[in-house]
């Protein structure tokens, strides 16, 4: 059966491929920040149920693990905003 998580993983992998292609583009003067932006975006899409389970195992409780996971995703989003806002 098709699950939404498969679509999220596919989108994350495509965004990581875009990041690698951006890093390899010698004609782009901002290729490192562009690649970093797309890599962070891809990582956000790859975060899923398995990450919640991993964080719960590391921190002992599901609530604490989920909270730290949400904080981590928020930090990635802020980093993406800073990259985009500073002309990256």
Keywords for this structure?
88 residues, mainly alpha, 4 helices, 0% strand
Structure in words:
The longest helix is centred in the C-terminal third of the chain and has 24 residues, at 62-85. With 88 residues, the protein is mainly α. It contains 4 helices and no strands. It has helices at 4-24, 31-46, 49-59, 62-85.
| Biggest pleated sheet | none
Give me the count of strands. Answer: 0
Series of H and E elements:
HHHH
Q: What fraction strand?
A: under 5%
Quick overview of this protein structure:
With 88 residues, this protein is mostly helical. The protein has helices at 4-24, 31-46, 49-59, 62-85.
Sequence-ordered SSE layout with sheet pairings:
Blueprint: H1 4-24, H2 31-46, H3 49-59, H4 62-85
Helix pairs in contact: 1-2, 2-4, 3-4
């Amino acid at each position: 059966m098709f699950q939404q998580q498969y679509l999220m993983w596919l989108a994350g992998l495509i965004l990581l491929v875009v990041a690698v292609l951006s890093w390899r583009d010698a004609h782009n003067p901002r290729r490192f920040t562009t690649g970093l932006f797309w890599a962070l975006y891809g990582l956000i899409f790859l975060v899923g149920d398995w990450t919640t389970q991993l964080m719960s195992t590391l921190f002992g409780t599901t609530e604490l693990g989920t909270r730290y996971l949400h904080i981590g995703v928020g930090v990635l989003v802020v980093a993406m905003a800073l990259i985009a806002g500073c002309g990256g």
